[in-house]
Amino acid sequence: FCPLFSILDKTELKRSRVPGVMVTQYVEELPPGSTTPDFIRKPIALTIQEGKLAYFKAVVSGYPVPDVSWARNKGDISNSTKYVSRFDEKNEEYILEIPNVDSDQADTYKCFAINPFGKAVCTAALNVIEGREFMKVAKRKEKQWKEGEIDPRFWEVLLSAPKKDYERICQEFGVTDFRWMLRKLNQKKKEREAEQSKKIHSLKQIEVKTDGTAEFELDMKLKDLNSKILLFKDGEMLDYGDGTNEATKHNMQKFGETYLFSIRDVSPEDAGIYQVDVEEVNMFSTSLVLPDVEFNTTLKDTKVIEGRDAVFECALSDPVPQITWCANDISVEHGKKYNITVSEDKHVHKLAVKNCTEEDKGVYTAIAGLRSSQGTLNVEGKFASGKDDEKFTYSMPVSKTLDFQASPKFIVPLKRHAAPPGYECYMSCAVTGNPTPHITWYHNNVSLNTNPNYYITNVCGVCSLLILRVGPKDMGEYKVVAESPLGYDECSTKLIVKGMSSILILINLFWLKF
Predict the structure, then answer these.
(1) Alpha helices, DSSP H only, in 80-151?
(2) pTM for the complete prediction?
(3) Tell me: the pLDDT tens digits for 49-85?
(4) 200 DSSP 8-state letter
(5) Where does the record place the Ig-like domain (predicted)?
(6) For residue 270, is pLDDT > 50?
(7) Which of 108, 150, 245, 450 is the most buried (most CB within 10 A)?
(8) Strands 46-49 and 118-129, bridge-based pairing
(9) In the β-sheet with 35-41, what is the strand arrangement from edge to edge?
Protein backbone atom coordinates (compact mmCIF):
# COMPACT_ATOMS: atom_id res chain seq x y z
CA PHE A 1 0.00 0.00 0.00
CA CYS A 2 2.98 2.34 0.42
CA PRO A 3 3.32 3.23 -3.29
CA LEU A 4 -0.42 3.99 -3.49
CA PHE A 5 -0.34 6.30 -0.47
CA SER A 6 2.80 7.93 -1.86
CA ILE A 7 0.96 8.86 -5.06
CA LEU A 8 -2.09 10.08 -3.16
CA ASP A 9 0.07 12.28 -0.99
CA LYS A 10 1.47 14.06 -4.05
CA THR A 11 -1.87 14.80 -5.70
CA GLU A 12 -3.47 18.16 -5.03
CA LEU A 13 -6.59 19.98 -6.16
CA LYS A 14 -6.04 23.15 -8.18
CA ARG A 15 -8.42 26.02 -8.79
CA SER A 16 -9.78 26.25 -12.32
CA ARG A 17 -10.55 29.58 -13.96
CA VAL A 18 -13.86 28.08 -15.14
CA PRO A 19 -16.56 27.54 -12.47
CA GLY A 20 -17.66 23.92 -12.01
CA VAL A 21 -14.37 22.33 -13.15
CA MET A 22 -12.28 20.14 -10.82
CA VAL A 23 -8.55 20.00 -11.59
CA THR A 24 -6.21 17.45 -9.95
CA GLN A 25 -2.42 17.74 -10.21
CA TYR A 26 -0.51 14.45 -9.98
CA VAL A 27 2.96 15.86 -9.14
CA GLU A 28 4.26 18.32 -6.57
CA GLU A 29 6.18 20.40 -9.11
CA LEU A 30 5.47 20.65 -12.81
CA PRO A 31 8.40 20.39 -15.26
CA PRO A 32 9.23 23.65 -17.10
CA GLY A 33 6.76 24.29 -19.90
CA SER A 34 4.26 21.68 -18.67
CA THR A 35 0.77 22.40 -17.38
CA THR A 36 -2.10 20.43 -15.92
CA PRO A 37 -5.26 20.03 -18.03
CA ASP A 38 -8.07 22.58 -17.65
CA PHE A 39 -11.21 23.63 -19.49
CA ILE A 40 -11.23 26.88 -21.46
CA ARG A 41 -14.90 26.28 -22.24
CA LYS A 42 -16.88 23.51 -20.61
CA PRO A 43 -20.02 21.79 -21.97
CA ILE A 44 -23.30 23.36 -20.88
CA ALA A 45 -26.48 21.69 -19.65
CA LEU A 46 -28.98 20.91 -22.39
CA THR A 47 -32.76 20.47 -22.55
CA ILE A 48 -33.88 19.05 -25.90
CA GLN A 49 -36.89 17.46 -27.57
CA GLU A 50 -36.88 13.71 -28.12
CA GLY A 51 -35.65 12.72 -31.60
CA LYS A 52 -33.44 15.78 -32.07
CA LEU A 53 -29.63 15.93 -32.28
CA ALA A 54 -28.02 16.68 -28.91
CA TYR A 55 -24.38 17.59 -28.56
CA PHE A 56 -21.90 18.77 -25.94
CA LYS A 57 -18.82 20.85 -26.79
CA ALA A 58 -15.66 21.47 -24.78
CA VAL A 59 -12.38 23.35 -25.31
CA VAL A 60 -9.41 22.26 -23.17
CA SER A 61 -5.86 23.42 -22.45
CA GLY A 62 -2.73 21.79 -21.05
CA TYR A 63 0.71 20.57 -22.10
CA PRO A 64 1.28 17.84 -23.10
CA VAL A 65 -2.04 18.07 -24.96
CA PRO A 66 -4.54 16.14 -22.81
CA ASP A 67 -6.59 13.17 -23.97
CA VAL A 68 -10.32 13.96 -23.84
CA SER A 69 -12.98 11.33 -23.15
CA TRP A 70 -16.69 11.29 -22.29
CA ALA A 71 -18.83 9.21 -19.93
CA ARG A 72 -22.29 9.18 -18.33
CA ASN A 73 -23.40 8.37 -14.81
CA LYS A 74 -25.95 5.67 -15.61
CA GLY A 75 -24.72 3.53 -18.46
CA ASP A 76 -21.99 3.52 -21.08
CA ILE A 77 -21.50 5.38 -24.35
CA SER A 78 -19.67 2.66 -26.29
CA ASN A 79 -22.48 2.25 -28.84
CA SER A 80 -21.14 4.21 -31.85
CA THR A 81 -24.59 4.51 -33.42
CA LYS A 82 -25.93 6.37 -30.38
CA TYR A 83 -22.83 8.32 -29.33
CA VAL A 84 -20.29 9.98 -31.66
CA SER A 85 -17.17 11.55 -30.19
CA ARG A 86 -15.08 13.73 -32.49
CA PHE A 87 -12.64 16.67 -32.59
CA ASP A 88 -13.27 19.85 -34.59
CA GLU A 89 -9.78 20.98 -35.64
CA LYS A 90 -10.92 24.37 -36.98
CA ASN A 91 -12.51 25.48 -33.68
CA GLU A 92 -10.38 23.16 -31.48
CA GLU A 93 -13.54 21.74 -29.91
CA TYR A 94 -14.11 18.24 -28.52
CA ILE A 95 -17.69 17.23 -29.35
CA LEU A 96 -19.98 14.46 -28.15
CA GLU A 97 -22.97 14.02 -30.49
CA ILE A 98 -26.12 12.10 -29.57
CA PRO A 99 -28.28 11.70 -32.73
CA ASN A 100 -32.00 10.96 -32.38
CA VAL A 101 -31.85 11.41 -28.62
CA ASP A 102 -34.42 9.48 -26.55
CA SER A 103 -35.59 9.67 -22.95
CA ASP A 104 -33.30 6.78 -21.89
CA GLN A 105 -30.27 8.96 -22.65
CA ALA A 106 -31.27 11.68 -20.19
CA ASP A 107 -28.43 11.65 -17.67
CA THR A 108 -25.47 13.59 -16.26
CA TYR A 109 -22.53 13.43 -18.67
CA LYS A 110 -18.88 13.86 -17.74
CA CYS A 111 -15.94 15.16 -19.76
CA PHE A 112 -12.39 14.15 -18.77
CA ALA A 113 -9.16 15.85 -19.89
CA ILE A 114 -6.06 13.90 -18.79
CA ASN A 115 -2.32 14.20 -19.36
CA PRO A 116 0.68 12.77 -17.41
CA PHE A 117 0.61 15.62 -14.90
CA GLY A 118 -3.06 15.91 -14.01
CA LYS A 119 -6.75 15.59 -14.75
CA ALA A 120 -9.67 17.99 -15.25
CA VAL A 121 -13.30 16.90 -14.93
CA CYS A 122 -16.62 18.68 -15.46
CA THR A 123 -20.25 17.60 -15.84
CA ALA A 124 -23.30 18.66 -17.86
CA ALA A 125 -26.88 17.45 -17.59
CA LEU A 126 -28.96 16.27 -20.54
CA ASN A 127 -32.74 16.56 -20.13
CA VAL A 128 -34.96 14.96 -22.79
CA ILE A 129 -38.57 16.16 -23.15
CA GLU A 130 -41.27 14.18 -24.92
CA GLY A 131 -43.94 15.60 -27.28
CA ARG A 132 -45.74 18.85 -26.53
CA GLU A 133 -44.23 19.16 -23.08
CA PHE A 134 -41.05 20.35 -24.75
CA MET A 135 -42.35 23.85 -25.56
CA LYS A 136 -43.67 24.38 -22.03
CA VAL A 137 -40.41 23.30 -20.46
CA ALA A 138 -38.33 25.30 -22.98
CA LYS A 139 -40.18 28.52 -22.13
CA ARG A 140 -39.82 27.85 -18.43
CA LYS A 141 -36.15 27.07 -18.96
CA GLU A 142 -35.50 30.52 -20.40
CA LYS A 143 -36.49 32.02 -17.06
CA GLN A 144 -34.40 29.61 -15.01
CA TRP A 145 -30.87 30.07 -16.34
CA LYS A 146 -28.24 29.08 -13.85
CA GLU A 147 -24.90 30.84 -13.91
CA GLY A 148 -23.00 27.56 -14.06
CA GLU A 149 -24.76 26.67 -17.34
CA ILE A 150 -23.45 29.77 -19.16
CA ASP A 151 -20.08 29.81 -20.85
CA PRO A 152 -17.90 31.84 -18.40
CA ARG A 153 -16.49 33.77 -21.35
CA PHE A 154 -19.99 35.27 -21.89
CA TRP A 155 -19.75 37.52 -18.82
CA GLU A 156 -16.08 38.38 -19.45
CA VAL A 157 -16.88 39.66 -22.93
CA LEU A 158 -20.19 41.31 -22.00
CA LEU A 159 -18.72 43.31 -19.09
CA SER A 160 -16.33 45.12 -21.44
CA ALA A 161 -18.58 45.37 -24.52
CA PRO A 162 -20.51 48.47 -25.67
CA LYS A 163 -24.29 48.25 -25.36
CA LYS A 164 -24.80 48.05 -29.14
CA ASP A 165 -23.03 44.64 -29.12
CA TYR A 166 -25.20 43.03 -26.38
CA GLU A 167 -27.64 41.42 -28.86
CA ARG A 168 -24.83 39.94 -31.01
CA ILE A 169 -23.00 38.54 -27.97
CA CYS A 170 -26.21 36.97 -26.59
CA GLN A 171 -26.85 35.29 -29.95
CA GLU A 172 -23.28 33.91 -30.09
CA PHE A 173 -23.57 32.33 -26.62
CA GLY A 174 -27.20 31.18 -26.97
CA VAL A 175 -28.68 33.44 -24.25
CA THR A 176 -32.33 34.30 -24.96
CA ASP A 177 -33.64 35.62 -21.63
CA PHE A 178 -32.62 39.27 -22.00
CA ARG A 179 -34.33 40.50 -18.83
CA TRP A 180 -32.42 37.93 -16.79
CA MET A 181 -29.19 38.86 -18.60
CA LEU A 182 -29.59 42.59 -17.90
CA ARG A 183 -30.33 41.99 -14.24
CA LYS A 184 -27.31 39.71 -13.79
CA LEU A 185 -25.10 42.05 -15.81
CA ASN A 186 -25.94 45.04 -13.61
CA GLN A 187 -25.22 42.93 -10.55
CA LYS A 188 -21.86 41.80 -11.94
CA LYS A 189 -20.93 45.36 -12.93
CA LYS A 190 -21.52 46.55 -9.37
CA GLU A 191 -19.44 43.68 -8.01
CA ARG A 192 -16.60 44.40 -10.43
CA GLU A 193 -16.69 48.15 -9.74
CA ALA A 194 -16.43 47.42 -6.03
CA GLU A 195 -13.38 45.22 -6.63
CA GLN A 196 -11.83 47.65 -9.10
CA SER A 197 -12.24 50.58 -6.71
CA LYS A 198 -9.77 48.86 -4.41
CA LYS A 199 -7.10 48.90 -7.14
CA ILE A 200 -7.73 51.78 -9.56
CA HIS A 201 -9.44 55.16 -9.83
CA SER A 202 -10.64 55.05 -13.44
CA LEU A 203 -11.04 52.59 -16.30
CA LYS A 204 -11.50 53.35 -20.02
CA GLN A 205 -12.94 51.17 -22.79
CA ILE A 206 -10.39 49.55 -25.13
CA GLU A 207 -9.58 50.59 -28.67
CA VAL A 208 -8.49 48.01 -31.25
CA LYS A 209 -5.97 49.21 -33.86
CA THR A 210 -5.91 47.83 -37.37
CA ASP A 211 -2.39 48.44 -38.78
CA GLY A 212 -1.23 44.84 -38.31
CA THR A 213 -1.30 45.06 -34.51
CA ALA A 214 -4.04 44.79 -31.92
CA GLU A 215 -3.96 47.17 -28.97
CA PHE A 216 -5.82 47.19 -25.66
CA GLU A 217 -5.62 50.56 -23.91
CA LEU A 218 -6.54 51.14 -20.26
CA ASP A 219 -6.46 54.33 -18.19
CA MET A 220 -5.63 53.20 -14.66
CA LYS A 221 -4.51 55.19 -11.66
CA LEU A 222 -3.21 52.48 -9.35
CA LYS A 223 -3.57 53.15 -5.66
CA ASP A 224 -0.72 50.73 -5.02
CA LEU A 225 2.07 51.33 -7.56
CA ASN A 226 3.57 47.95 -6.66
CA SER A 227 0.44 46.06 -7.77
CA LYS A 228 1.24 43.27 -10.24
CA ILE A 229 -0.41 43.59 -13.67
CA LEU A 230 -1.14 40.28 -15.43
CA LEU A 231 -2.19 39.55 -19.03
CA PHE A 232 -4.11 36.36 -19.90
CA LYS A 233 -5.23 34.76 -23.19
CA ASP A 234 -7.90 32.06 -22.92
CA GLY A 235 -7.06 31.72 -19.21
CA GLU A 236 -3.30 31.26 -19.77
CA MET A 237 -0.94 33.92 -18.44
CA LEU A 238 1.24 35.65 -21.07
CA ASP A 239 4.73 37.04 -20.75
CA TYR A 240 5.01 40.59 -22.11
CA GLY A 241 7.75 43.11 -22.82
CA ASP A 242 7.94 46.90 -22.58
CA GLY A 243 7.73 47.55 -26.35
CA THR A 244 11.45 48.19 -26.88
CA ASN A 245 12.16 44.78 -28.40
CA GLU A 246 10.50 44.32 -31.81
CA ALA A 247 10.79 40.53 -31.47
CA THR A 248 8.47 40.45 -28.44
CA LYS A 249 4.96 39.31 -29.37
CA HIS A 250 3.08 40.87 -26.42
CA ASN A 251 4.03 44.20 -24.88
CA MET A 252 2.88 46.68 -22.26
CA GLN A 253 3.84 50.36 -22.36
CA LYS A 254 2.97 52.94 -19.73
CA PHE A 255 2.29 56.58 -20.65
CA GLY A 256 1.42 58.43 -17.45
CA GLU A 257 -1.74 56.70 -16.23
CA THR A 258 -2.36 54.98 -19.59
CA TYR A 259 -1.37 51.32 -20.06
CA LEU A 260 -1.11 50.11 -23.66
CA PHE A 261 -1.11 46.33 -24.25
CA SER A 262 -0.20 45.38 -27.83
CA ILE A 263 -0.03 42.21 -29.95
CA ARG A 264 2.47 42.38 -32.82
CA ASP A 265 1.97 40.69 -36.21
CA VAL A 266 -1.54 39.46 -35.48
CA SER A 267 -2.26 35.97 -36.87
CA PRO A 268 -5.22 33.55 -36.63
CA GLU A 269 -3.63 31.93 -33.56
CA ASP A 270 -4.02 35.23 -31.68
CA ALA A 271 -7.82 34.99 -31.69
CA GLY A 272 -9.34 34.35 -28.25
CA ILE A 273 -10.33 35.91 -24.94
CA TYR A 274 -7.90 38.49 -23.51
CA GLN A 275 -8.00 39.56 -19.88
CA VAL A 276 -6.06 42.11 -17.82
CA ASP A 277 -5.85 41.54 -14.06
CA VAL A 278 -4.41 43.75 -11.33
CA GLU A 279 -3.32 41.28 -8.66
CA GLU A 280 -6.38 38.96 -8.55
CA VAL A 281 -8.97 41.49 -9.73
CA ASN A 282 -10.14 41.43 -13.36
CA MET A 283 -9.91 44.90 -14.91
CA PHE A 284 -10.81 44.19 -18.50
CA SER A 285 -11.84 41.30 -20.79
CA THR A 286 -12.58 41.17 -24.50
CA SER A 287 -12.53 38.75 -27.42
CA LEU A 288 -10.33 39.07 -30.50
CA VAL A 289 -12.26 37.54 -33.42
CA LEU A 290 -10.46 37.00 -36.75
CA PRO A 291 -12.86 35.58 -39.38
CA ASP A 292 -11.22 33.80 -42.33
CA VAL A 293 -12.75 35.69 -45.29
CA GLU A 294 -11.73 37.21 -48.62
CA PHE A 295 -12.86 40.43 -50.33
CA ASN A 296 -14.96 39.53 -53.39
CA THR A 297 -15.44 43.25 -54.11
CA THR A 298 -12.90 45.80 -52.87
CA LEU A 299 -13.33 49.49 -52.04
CA LYS A 300 -13.13 51.96 -54.94
CA ASP A 301 -11.72 55.49 -54.99
CA THR A 302 -14.47 58.09 -54.58
CA LYS A 303 -14.74 61.75 -55.57
CA VAL A 304 -17.55 64.01 -54.25
CA ILE A 305 -18.40 67.69 -54.13
CA GLU A 306 -18.08 69.38 -50.75
CA GLY A 307 -21.29 69.12 -48.72
CA ARG A 308 -22.46 65.87 -50.32
CA ASP A 309 -22.20 62.28 -49.12
CA ALA A 310 -19.68 59.62 -50.15
CA VAL A 311 -20.31 55.85 -50.02
CA PHE A 312 -17.76 53.03 -49.80
CA GLU A 313 -18.90 49.44 -50.39
CA CYS A 314 -17.27 45.99 -50.24
CA ALA A 315 -18.46 42.38 -50.51
CA LEU A 316 -17.03 39.44 -48.55
CA SER A 317 -16.72 35.76 -49.46
CA ASP A 318 -18.46 34.65 -46.25
CA PRO A 319 -21.03 36.28 -43.96
CA VAL A 320 -19.53 38.53 -41.27
CA PRO A 321 -21.90 40.42 -38.91
CA GLN A 322 -19.56 43.37 -38.40
CA ILE A 323 -16.27 44.62 -39.85
CA THR A 324 -13.94 47.48 -38.87
CA TRP A 325 -13.97 50.75 -40.83
CA CYS A 326 -11.10 53.26 -40.59
CA ALA A 327 -10.60 56.81 -41.83
CA ASN A 328 -6.89 57.63 -42.14
CA ASP A 329 -5.99 54.72 -39.81
CA ILE A 330 -8.49 55.84 -37.12
CA SER A 331 -11.45 53.53 -36.50
CA VAL A 332 -14.91 55.06 -37.01
CA GLU A 333 -18.35 54.10 -35.70
CA HIS A 334 -21.96 54.52 -36.78
CA GLY A 335 -23.21 57.98 -35.78
CA LYS A 336 -23.85 61.52 -37.00
CA LYS A 337 -20.84 61.60 -39.32
CA TYR A 338 -20.80 57.98 -40.52
CA ASN A 339 -23.58 55.59 -41.49
CA ILE A 340 -22.54 51.91 -41.37
CA THR A 341 -24.88 49.27 -42.80
CA VAL A 342 -24.73 45.56 -43.65
CA SER A 343 -26.86 43.51 -46.02
CA GLU A 344 -29.29 40.90 -44.74
CA ASP A 345 -26.99 38.04 -45.78
CA LYS A 346 -24.03 39.75 -43.98
CA HIS A 347 -21.91 39.74 -47.17
CA VAL A 348 -22.13 43.39 -48.31
CA HIS A 349 -20.88 46.17 -46.01
CA LYS A 350 -21.26 49.91 -46.63
CA LEU A 351 -19.82 53.08 -45.08
CA ALA A 352 -21.45 56.44 -45.88
CA VAL A 353 -19.50 59.62 -45.05
CA LYS A 354 -22.09 62.33 -44.54
CA ASN A 355 -21.77 66.00 -45.58
CA CYS A 356 -18.16 65.68 -46.77
CA THR A 357 -15.64 68.46 -46.06
CA GLU A 358 -11.93 68.92 -46.77
CA GLU A 359 -11.18 67.25 -43.43
CA ASP A 360 -12.79 64.00 -44.67
CA LYS A 361 -10.24 63.55 -47.49
CA GLY A 362 -7.87 60.60 -47.19
CA VAL A 363 -7.66 56.82 -47.17
CA TYR A 364 -10.59 54.71 -45.96
CA THR A 365 -10.06 51.08 -44.97
CA ALA A 366 -12.39 48.12 -44.50
CA ILE A 367 -10.91 45.37 -42.33
CA ALA A 368 -12.32 41.84 -42.01
CA GLY A 369 -10.21 39.42 -40.01
CA LEU A 370 -6.62 39.64 -41.25
CA ARG A 371 -7.52 41.12 -44.64
CA SER A 372 -8.24 44.71 -45.63
CA SER A 373 -9.27 46.84 -48.60
CA GLN A 374 -8.61 50.55 -49.14
CA GLY A 375 -10.10 53.39 -51.15
CA THR A 376 -9.36 57.12 -51.24
CA LEU A 377 -11.85 59.96 -50.83
CA ASN A 378 -11.27 63.21 -52.69
CA VAL A 379 -13.49 66.19 -51.81
CA GLU A 380 -13.75 68.99 -54.38
CA GLY A 381 -14.68 72.54 -53.42
CA LYS A 382 -17.99 74.04 -54.45
CA PHE A 383 -16.21 76.74 -56.49
CA ALA A 384 -13.21 75.67 -58.53
CA SER A 385 -12.39 79.17 -59.80
CA GLY A 386 -10.59 81.95 -57.93
CA LYS A 387 -11.86 85.33 -56.69
CA ASP A 388 -11.05 87.16 -59.92
CA ASP A 389 -13.04 84.64 -61.93
CA GLU A 390 -16.00 84.94 -59.53
CA LYS A 391 -16.03 88.74 -59.89
CA PHE A 392 -15.86 88.42 -63.65
CA THR A 393 -18.78 85.99 -63.64
CA TYR A 394 -20.94 88.41 -61.66
CA SER A 395 -20.06 91.37 -63.84
CA MET A 396 -20.80 89.69 -67.18
CA PRO A 397 -24.03 88.06 -68.23
CA VAL A 398 -23.40 84.48 -69.20
CA SER A 399 -25.58 81.87 -70.78
CA LYS A 400 -26.39 78.89 -68.61
CA THR A 401 -27.50 75.41 -69.51
CA LEU A 402 -30.20 73.85 -67.38
CA ASP A 403 -28.92 71.13 -65.06
CA PHE A 404 -31.68 69.01 -63.58
CA GLN A 405 -29.32 66.81 -61.60
CA ALA A 406 -29.97 66.76 -57.85
CA SER A 407 -28.88 64.66 -54.89
CA PRO A 408 -31.50 62.40 -53.24
CA LYS A 409 -33.88 64.12 -50.82
CA PHE A 410 -36.97 62.81 -48.99
CA ILE A 411 -39.89 65.20 -49.50
CA VAL A 412 -42.43 63.02 -47.63
CA PRO A 413 -40.90 61.12 -44.67
CA LEU A 414 -42.07 57.88 -43.10
CA LYS A 415 -44.73 58.12 -40.40
CA ARG A 416 -44.84 56.29 -37.09
CA HIS A 417 -46.98 53.12 -37.17
CA ALA A 418 -48.76 50.94 -34.60
CA ALA A 419 -50.48 47.74 -35.74
CA PRO A 420 -52.14 44.75 -33.98
CA PRO A 421 -50.61 41.29 -34.50
CA GLY A 422 -51.90 39.54 -37.64
CA TYR A 423 -52.94 42.76 -39.41
CA GLU A 424 -51.38 44.45 -42.46
CA CYS A 425 -49.03 47.40 -42.10
CA TYR A 426 -48.29 49.77 -45.01
CA MET A 427 -45.44 52.29 -44.92
CA SER A 428 -44.62 54.84 -47.61
CA CYS A 429 -42.48 57.88 -48.28
CA ALA A 430 -41.49 60.03 -51.29
CA VAL A 431 -38.01 60.86 -52.55
CA THR A 432 -36.65 63.05 -55.35
CA GLY A 433 -33.30 62.99 -57.11
CA ASN A 434 -31.70 62.93 -60.55
CA PRO A 435 -30.34 60.48 -61.50
CA THR A 436 -32.96 58.22 -59.91
CA PRO A 437 -31.56 57.10 -56.53
CA HIS A 438 -31.20 53.48 -55.48
CA ILE A 439 -33.60 52.67 -52.62
CA THR A 440 -32.82 50.25 -49.78
CA TRP A 441 -35.13 49.39 -46.88
CA TYR A 442 -33.68 48.38 -43.49
CA HIS A 443 -35.20 46.82 -40.38
CA ASN A 444 -32.96 47.39 -37.34
CA ASN A 445 -30.04 48.10 -39.76
CA VAL A 446 -30.59 44.79 -41.67
CA SER A 447 -31.43 45.10 -45.38
CA LEU A 448 -34.95 43.96 -46.43
CA ASN A 449 -34.63 44.30 -50.23
CA THR A 450 -34.15 40.53 -50.74
CA ASN A 451 -36.46 39.42 -47.93
CA PRO A 452 -39.56 37.69 -49.39
CA ASN A 453 -41.58 38.41 -46.23
CA TYR A 454 -41.88 42.09 -47.23
CA TYR A 455 -43.53 43.49 -50.38
CA ILE A 456 -41.45 46.49 -51.50
CA THR A 457 -42.22 48.85 -54.43
CA ASN A 458 -40.71 52.07 -55.80
CA VAL A 459 -42.88 53.86 -58.37
CA CYS A 460 -42.10 57.42 -59.53
CA GLY A 461 -40.29 58.22 -56.32
CA VAL A 462 -42.97 56.79 -54.00
CA CYS A 463 -41.32 54.09 -51.89
CA SER A 464 -43.61 51.64 -50.10
CA LEU A 465 -43.32 48.56 -47.92
CA LEU A 466 -46.15 46.17 -47.04
CA ILE A 467 -46.13 43.68 -44.15
CA LEU A 468 -48.97 41.22 -44.78
CA ARG A 469 -49.18 39.81 -41.23
CA VAL A 470 -47.56 41.85 -38.48
CA GLY A 471 -45.82 39.83 -35.75
CA PRO A 472 -43.59 40.58 -32.73
CA LYS A 473 -40.44 40.14 -34.87
CA ASP A 474 -41.57 43.06 -37.07
CA MET A 475 -41.37 45.55 -34.19
CA GLY A 476 -38.45 47.99 -34.39
CA GLU A 477 -36.90 50.72 -36.49
CA TYR A 478 -37.52 50.91 -40.25
CA LYS A 479 -35.22 53.03 -42.39
CA VAL A 480 -35.20 53.96 -46.08
CA VAL A 481 -31.85 54.90 -47.65
CA ALA A 482 -31.65 56.71 -51.01
CA GLU A 483 -28.24 56.67 -52.77
CA SER A 484 -26.94 58.09 -56.05
CA PRO A 485 -23.57 59.29 -57.38
CA LEU A 486 -24.52 62.77 -56.19
CA GLY A 487 -25.28 61.96 -52.56
CA TYR A 488 -27.19 60.13 -49.88
CA ASP A 489 -30.30 60.72 -47.75
CA GLU A 490 -32.37 58.66 -45.34
CA CYS A 491 -35.53 58.73 -43.24
CA SER A 492 -36.75 56.37 -40.54
CA THR A 493 -39.69 55.45 -38.32
CA LYS A 494 -40.67 52.91 -35.69
CA LEU A 495 -43.29 50.17 -35.77
CA ILE A 496 -45.02 49.24 -32.50
CA VAL A 497 -47.01 46.00 -32.34
CA LYS A 498 -50.11 46.43 -30.20
CA GLY A 499 -51.26 43.87 -27.64
CA MET A 500 -47.81 42.38 -27.00
CA SER A 501 -46.99 40.88 -23.62
CA SER A 502 -44.68 42.85 -21.32
CA ILE A 503 -41.87 40.32 -21.81
CA LEU A 504 -41.95 40.61 -25.63
CA ILE A 505 -42.07 44.41 -25.40
CA LEU A 506 -39.05 44.38 -23.09
CA ILE A 507 -37.07 42.17 -25.49
CA ASN A 508 -37.88 44.32 -28.52
CA LEU A 509 -37.15 47.56 -26.67
CA PHE A 510 -33.83 46.00 -25.70
CA TRP A 511 -33.06 45.33 -29.37
CA LEU A 512 -33.97 48.92 -30.31
CA LYS A 513 -31.85 50.43 -27.55
CA PHE A 514 -28.73 48.38 -28.06
Answers:
(1) 133-142
(2) 0.38
(3) 888 888 999 999 999 999 999 999 988 999 999 999 9
(4) B
(5) 37-127, 291-378, 408-498
(6) yes
(7) 150
(8) parallel
(9) 35-41, 54-63, 93-98, 84-88
